[in-house]
Each structure stands twice: as structure tokens, then as C-alpha cells.
Specification:
The complex is a heterodimer of chains A (282) and B (453).
Chain A lengths: L4 H25 L2 H31 L10 H23 L4 H18 L18 H32 L5 H4 L4 H34 L7 H19 L7 H25 L10
Helix pairs in contact in A: 1-2, 1-4, 2-3, 3-4, 3-5, 4-5, 5-7, 5-9, 7-8, 7-9, 8-9
Chain B lengths: L5 H4 L2 H6 L2 H20 L6 H18 L9 H30 L7 H4 L4 E8 L4 H15 L3 E6 L2 E8 L6 H22 L1 E8 L3 E7 L5 E17 L5 E12 L1 E8 L5 E3 L2 E19 L5 E7 L3 E4 L4 E9 L8 E7 L5 E7 L3 E6 L2 E22 L3 H20 L3 E10 L2 E10 L3 H20 L3
Antiparallel strand pairs in B: 1-19, 2-3, 3-18, 4-5, 4-17, 5-6, 6-7, 7-8, 9-10, 10-11, 10-17, 12-13, 13-14, 14-15, 16-17, 18-19
Helix pairs in contact in B: 3-5, 5-8, 7-10, 8-9
The chains are: A mainly alpha (282), B alpha+beta (453).
The structure holds protoporphyrin IX containing FE.
């Protein structure tokens, strides 16, 4: 079974690791060709991963289960890394700054590596439990993860901002290669607004689905509550800009804190707390 | 944010309540306090908390209602303050936005146009005839879209192509959607109910049990469970729960099979498949003194009258595997005089039962599992308001995010002995797209002005 989904997906893991190294090399040594190569490798990885996800979907039909590959921790990690790369490629294409890749592709490769190598993560295709049998599953997961992917990018940008801010206007060295604080601040804001829109849609579709499935659009289950906490954090980041004295620094911190909250919503809730969404647990 | 009426500006409480500072404070406070209810299990008995957290923390927990954090007085207060903040802030900014919205972008001077982020000027020696000016104007109109004119501005003609001015209201839609959602939630809280019922196959109910108060809620019609089905995947995981329900009020009104993601709705009340339970039904074989055999089915929680001997039977206990490794049931029997006897029946064994001078032989013929379906029952007249709030939120977001307010001006007039043409523009978002648009206008003007030189 050479061309199975798992073949493509493990290949992706290595490609993204390679891309992350290339972006880091590009950032440190500033060789344009390496940067271009990094973009090409990432794009190739993205295409291969897309194929892998599509194949996995088809395979689940062959097994007789027939569901979108968004139903367990393995699949959601793969999808998270897919969407992070998607959002990143869009940002790179629009902003034309490859350095950002050095701060974002590691997230995608960590996610893939964790999915592929951790013994805690089961990668077999399994049937859907009754509660997940709904078209809302796809809408809900895709919208949430578009938010998560954007927040991963915003977090990378936030880390860049803090590095750059420390450099105090230094224009040489590896910190000089980073975009200016003003540009980064604007980018962080835009990415957060974008992610916030998708997170809001994710919460809304989740509410509509919950209402369809068990009759309450909101039941304060830990996963729901944590997504709301995440939402509050990013709402804070959006509004903090309007308070004098709340400079880019605090917003950069909020973008990192917000992503930590995303990660907790995503993993922490499954591993540490209990609730309706426990399907994500290994 | 300077357009406040002085009456309000001087009022510190009003200023505090409308501040973004308060909004940020509340958002952070809500984020932090919301964690509590995800760490402490919610809705358990007070006994549970006393055992798990000890008497000291128990007092704190009780005072702050941490067993039901999200409905506690302080959490509701935070949400209330948040709503007030949102309302007052909106009211305070309304006049400012209104002024901005009403401002006519045609009342502007050429000097101001030259200070816009996007600008380009052309100078042409001498006077231009009307036809040439007209060409310039129409090429602007063609590139920039629908435009309005102010005929005499500093001795020249001014044109404005403006788009998306209404997008100022997007943020108002977005913010008020939060309030709409709150209102929907309150309507559901006060005018709706949540309950549940366990309904056996073949049974009918016309009321349910309130989830919070435990009281009865009459439905106004009846629900009958025809069948319950459960199916499994090969690996033993449940695949589907399905209840076949009939709604009637004397006569049948509708019949539907419900599964987990597909509920039944009638008269604003919705029935959701939530859980199930299997209960035993004992099938007894009774041999009368004359040798006749009778089969009697006794479901759990019900008594069954056997008319022939005027005996009433009931199932007390069921053990799928007793000490002998066989199924066993404990049966109670009541005779006409009201005397009750209980005994165990083991699968494969037979026992005598004397009633007056007759002796009956009783054995356990079979044990069937019968299903009870667990239904979640809900009425929420506020849910449509919540959906409306969601729709407004998405709409507001789309406007805030994607609809820019774009303005493009063209001024054609005399300056000293030259004809001056100014093209300028401004946008509040999506610069890239706007730059493309204004480039288009610039090129159109370039070619039509180039023709004049
Ligand atoms: C959780 C509820 C809230 C959400 C989802 C929300 C959302 C937003 C968003 C997305 C923006 C646009 C940010 C940008 O474009 O940079 C914004 C701006 C703003 N929000 Fe909120 N907000 C909320 C609560 C509040 C509250 C309670 C206040 C009360 C003071 C407030 C006051 C403002 C103000 C003054 C602006 C600036 C508007 C402008 O740029 O003209 N918001 N809000």
C-alpha cells in the first residue's frame, strides 16, 4: 500500500519539518534562493497533504464508515496543520515576507510530528459515534480550525514582534531581517480579526449543531466554555488597541496567550477535563 | 470619540460606563472567571462538594454558587455590566458616527485633496476647451464609478465617487448582535423549559419532568413510543439509536423516527434522542392443575393480572447471571385477598404455587430485553432571537471586515495660467484593492490628458 493516505501524511510530516528548517535558514542567512525553496517545499507539502486528507476520506468510504476525516485527535491534528499552512501561504502571498514562515511552519510541523509519532495518538480510521453523525461536523470543525490556524499565525507574528521590539530599531543582524514593529503590529491585528471571525463562526455553528442534536445551543460544557474564554481573550486584543498606552507589546503578548488558550481548548480540555467533546481524546 | 454632548461628558459615571477600558477589564475578568466552572464540576449535589473540597472551601463555594458558576449572581452581574457597557458605549458614539456619516465629502478644498494618502496631479498649459474637460471627466467617471458633482469649488469642478459609506454601521450591527443574543437567551430562560422522559416501547405519555425543578410539565398532547432500535458497528461501538414516535391528541397526528441528530418537533416542543435503557421482561410459563399452559409476559415496573386465577404478577429483581450462572428473576404475586408472596425463579427450574386448593406450576420461559428510550424535551421560544443575533453578528463582521469606505475625488480647475487636474483618494480598509482601483482611474486620466498635450 504505497499510495495510501498514511503514506502521504507521513511524507508531509517530513516535508514540513524540512520547510521549517529552510525558513529558519533563510531568516538567519538571508539567501533569497533558500527562501524561494522554502516556499516551494511548503507548497508541495501542502498539496501532498491535501491529497493525503482526500485519500483518507475516500478510504473511510471503502471501510464502510464514510465520514470526513475530522473525527478524532489524529485527523484534527492533521487538519490543524493543513489549515495553518493554508493561512500562512495566504499571508505570505499577500505580504510577501518569507521570514514569517520561520515562526509559523514549526507549528504545522509540530502538529504533524505529534500526530504521526506520539503513541497517544491513534491514527486508524474509525466509525463515527451517533452524536457526530451530522453535516454540521464538517462546517463546525472547518470554521473552528480556520480560526485556530489564523491564531497560530498570529502567535508566530506575536513572537516575532517581541524579538523585534527587543532589538530596538536595530537594522542589522537576524533581527534586522524581521519586518518592522509597525508592520508586524498591523499584521497581528488583521490576522486576529480574521481568526476571530472564524472562531465566532465556529462557536455559532457549534451552537446550532448542539441545538439540533440535543436541544440546547449552549450548555457550558468545558470545551464550549474554553472556546468562549479564547473568544474573550481575542476580543480583549481587538479592543486593547483603542486604549491609549496599550502598545503593540501587550497585543503581542495577548496573541501568544490567546493561542495558549486555543491549545488548551483543543488538547487540555480533552486530557484534563471532561465533557461532551471528549471524542477528541485518544 | 470627541463628539459627546457636554452634559454627558461631565458625568464621570457615564464616562466610566462607556469606556473601552471597562470593556477590556470585563472581557479579561470574564475570561478568567469562566475558567472556574470548567475546573470545578458543575451541578453536583452539595454533598459531593463537601466531600471533595472540605468544609472551608465548601463555604466559599456555596456563597459564590460555584456549583453553578455561570448562573451565579456575580457572573450574571458581570454579563449585565458588560451589556450596560456595550449599550452606553454605543449611545455615546452614536452622535459621532452620525456626524461622520452625514458629512458631505464634496465639501472639501483642493488643498485638502493634495493631502490625501493617494494623489496625483496633472498640469496642462493654458485653458482647456469644454470638450477636453468633458473627456477627462468622463474617463474619471468610467474608471471610478458612479459619482456626484459640486459645480464650483475654488473655481473648479469637483467630482466624488464614494462607496461603502454605510459600512460605518457595521460595528453597530456587530455590537448590538451580542445584546440580541442575550435577549434570546433570557426569553428562552423565562418562557421555555427543558425536561426529559424515559419512555418504554409501547407506552404513551402526556407530560414530562422538568430538568431543574423536577415538577411535571403537561405537553397538551401525547407521545407514544412504537419501537426503539439500537445498532452497533462491528467493533461493538454503538452506531445508531432510533426511536419511532407517534404524536396524537386522541387521534394520530404524526409519526416520525428520531435519531441523535434529527429530532421531532411539534407545537414548539422538540423531542431529542438522548439515551436509552434496556429493561427486562420476564416471560412465565404457568401450568394449571388441568394441564393447560399459559404464557404470561411481565415487564419491569408493571403489574400484570392473570384473570384465570385472579392473580397479579410483578417483577421485583432480575439477575442476568446468578450464583448458578443462570438467569434468575424475583417475582411477586398478589392474590384476590391482597396477600403478597415473593419468590425466585431460576431458568430451567420449576416451582409450585398454591392458591386455595389449586396448585400451579410456574417456570421461567424466557427473558426479553425491552427498551426505554431517553428523550430530551425542550421548548425554547427564544432560540429564533438567538439565531437572529448570530445572523446579525456574521453580517456585522462581514461589513466591518470586508466593506471599505472608499472615496475618489477629481478636481479640474485653473491655477495661475495652467489647468490643474487633481485625482485623490482615501480608503479605510483594503488598501491593496483600492490602490488597484485608483491606478485604473490614474491610467484612464493619463491617456485622456495625454491626448490634450
Ligand atoms: C464580546 C463582545 C464584543 C465583540 C465581539 C466586539 C467586537 C468588536 C470588533 C470586531 C471590533 C472591530 C475592531 C477593529 O476593527 O479593530 C470592535 C470595535 C470596537 N468595540 Fe467592540 N466588541 C465587543 C464588546 C465591546 C464592548 C463591551 C464595548 C464597550 C465599550 C466595545 C466597544 C468597541 C469600540 C469603541 C470599538 C471601536 C469601533 C471603531 O473602530 O469605530 N466593544 N468590537
Amino acid at each position: 500500500m504505497t499510495f495510501s493516505s498514511s503514506y502521504f501524511l507521513s511524507l508531509t510530516t517530513f516535508i514540513y519539518l524540512g520547510a521549517a528548517i529552510l525558513y529558519l535558514t533563510y531568516w538567519i542567512f538571508r539567501v533569497e534562493k533558500v527562501g524561494l525553496l522554502a516556499t516551494l517545499v511548503t507548497t508541495a507539502g501542502f498539496i501532498i497533504q491535501t491529497l493525503g486528507i482526500a485519500l483518507r476520506w475516500i478510504e473511510s468510504y471503502k471501510l464502510g464508515y464514510g465520514h470526513a476525516p475530522l473525527s478524532n485527535l489524529y485527523e484534527s491534528l492533521v487538519f490543524f496543520s493543513w489549515i495553518t499552512i493554508l493561512v500562512y501561504l495566504i499571508v505570505e502571498w499577500r505580504v510577501k515576507r518569507r521570514v514569517i514562515g520561520a515562526f509559523v511552519t514549526p507549528f504545522a510541523s509540530f502538529a504533524m510530528a505529534y500526530a504521526s509519532f506520539s503513541p497517544q495518538v491513534e491514527d486508524s480510521i474509525e466509525p463515527l459515534i451517533p452524536a457526530l453523525k451530522s453535516n454540521w461536523l464538517i462546517v463546525h470543525v472547518v470554521t473552528c480550525f480556520l480560526g485556530y490556524g489564523s491564531f497560530a499565525v498570529a502567535c508566530g507574528l506575536g513572537v516575532m514582534f517581541l524579538f523585534k521590539d527587543k532589538a530596538k530599531g536595530e537594522s542589522k543582524g537576524i533581527l534586522g531581517a524581521l519586518p518592522s514593529c509597525k508592520v508586524l503590529d498591523e499584521l497581528i491585528h488583521q490576522t486576529i480579526v480574521f481568526g476571530f471571525l472564524w472562531l465566532s463562526l465556529g462557536i455559532i455553528t457549534g451552537a446550532v449543531w448542539a441545538n439540533n442534536a440535543w436541544g440546547t445551543y449552549w450548555s457550558w460544557d468545558p470545551k464550549e466554555t474554553w472556546s468562549l474564554i479564547t473568544w474573550f481573550i481575542y476580543a480583549t486584543a481587538l479592543h486593547a488597541r483603542f486604549i491609549r498606552g496599550w502598545t503593540g507589546r501587550r497585543i503581542a503578548y495577548l496573541s501568544i496567550l490567546g493561542f495558549a488558550s486555543v491549545l488548551f481548548t483543543y488538547f487540555g480540555v480533552n486530557f484534563l477535563l471532561s465533557g461532551l467533546h471528549s471524542y477528541g481524546s485518544p | 470619540m470627541k463628539a459627546l454632548s457636554s452634559r454627558h461628558q461631565s458625568n464621570p459615571i457615564w464616562r466610566f460606563l462607556s469606556s473601552i477600558r471597562l470593556a477590556v477589564f470585563l472581557l479579561i475578568t470574564l475570561a478568567i472567571t469562566s475558567i472556574i466552572g470548567t475546573v470545578i464540576p458543575q451541578g453536583e449535589s452539595l454533598q459531593f462538594y463537601l466531600e471533595h473540597y472540605g468544609p472551608d472551601f465548601f463555604l466559599v463555594l456555596k456563597a459564590l454558587h460555584l456549583n453553578d458558576t455561570y448562573h451565579s449572581w456575580w457572573y450574571i452581574t458581570l454579563l449585565g455590566l458588560f451589556s450596560v457597557n456595550l449599550i452606553v458605549c454605543t449611545l455615546r458614539r452614536l452622535p459621532f458616527t452620525l456626524k461622520l456619516y452625514k458629512r458631505d465629502s464634496l465639501s472639501i478644498t483642493p488643498e485638502r485633496l493634495l493631502r490625501m494618502p493617494f494623489k496625483r496631479t496633472w498640469k496642462i498649459r493654458g485653458d482647456l476647451d469644454n470638450i477636453s474637460i468633458q473627456t477627462i471627466i468622463s474617463s474619471f467617471k468610467e474608471a471610478a464609478g458612479k459619482s456626484r458633482e459640486a459645480p464650483d469649488v475654488d473655481g473648479g469642478r469637483l467630482f466624488l465617487a464614494e462607496k461603502g459609506k454605510w459600512s460605518y454601521w457595521g460595528i453597530y450591527a456587530l455590537h448590538s448582535s451580542i445584546l440580541v443574543i442575550f435577549i434570546g437567551a433570557l426569553v428562552g430562560l423565562f418562557l421555555g423549559f427543558k425536561g426529559s422522559v424515559m419512555l418504554a416501547e409501547g407506552k404513551t405519555i402526556d407530560h414530562i419532568v422538568d430538568r431543574d425543578t423536577g415538577g411535571y410539565i403537561p405537553l397538551g398532547f401525547s407521545v407514544h413510543c412504537n419501537r426503539f432500535y439500537i445498532s452497533f458497528y462491528d467493533n461493538g461501538e454503538p452506531k445508531e439509536y432510533r426511536s419511532d414516535l407517534t404524536i396524537s391528541d386522541g387521534k394520530e397526528i404524526l409519526r416520525k423516527s428520531i435519531v441523535v441528530n434529527s429530532p421531532l418537533k411539534y407545537k414548539g416542543i422538540t423531542f431529542y434522542q438522548a439515551s436509552y435503557r434496556a429493561i427486562p421482561e420476564a416471560s412465565l410459563r404457568i401450568v394449571s392443575p388441568d394441564g393447560r399452559q399459559t404464557l404470561l409476559d411481565i415487564p419491569a415496573f408493571q403489574s400484570v393480572l392473570w384473570p384465570e386465577a385472579r392473580l397479579t404478577f410483578g417483577l421485583m429483581r432480575y439477575e442476568p447471571e446468578n450464583v448458578h450462572g443462570r438467569p434468575a428473576v424475583q417475582i411477586w404475586v398478589q392474590n384476590q385477598a391482597g396477600r403478597v408472596k415473593a419468590f425466585w425463579l431460576l431458568k430451567g427450574n420449576e416451582r409450585e404455587f398454591n392458591q386455595g386448593k389449586n396448585s400451579y406450576r410456574i417456570s421461567l420461559a424466557n427473558i426479553n430485553e425491552r427498551y426505554l428510550t431517553g428523550l430530551q424535551v425542550k421548548k425554547d421560544p427564544g432560540v429564533w432571537i438567538v439565531w437572529l443575533g448570530f445572523a446579525i453578528l456574521i453580517f456585522g463582521f462581514a461589513v466591518v471586515f470586508w466593506v471599505p469606505h472608499q472615496r475618489m475625488w477629481l478636481w479640474v480647475g485653473r491655477q495661475n495660467d495652467k489647468t490643474l487636474v487633481i485625482l485623490s483618494g482615501q480608503t479605510n480598509k483594503n488598501r491593496l484593492q483600492f490602490e488597484k482601483n485608483i491606478k485604473k482611474a490614474e491610467e484612464a486620466l493619463d491617456s485622456s490628458i495625454g491626448a490634450q498635450k
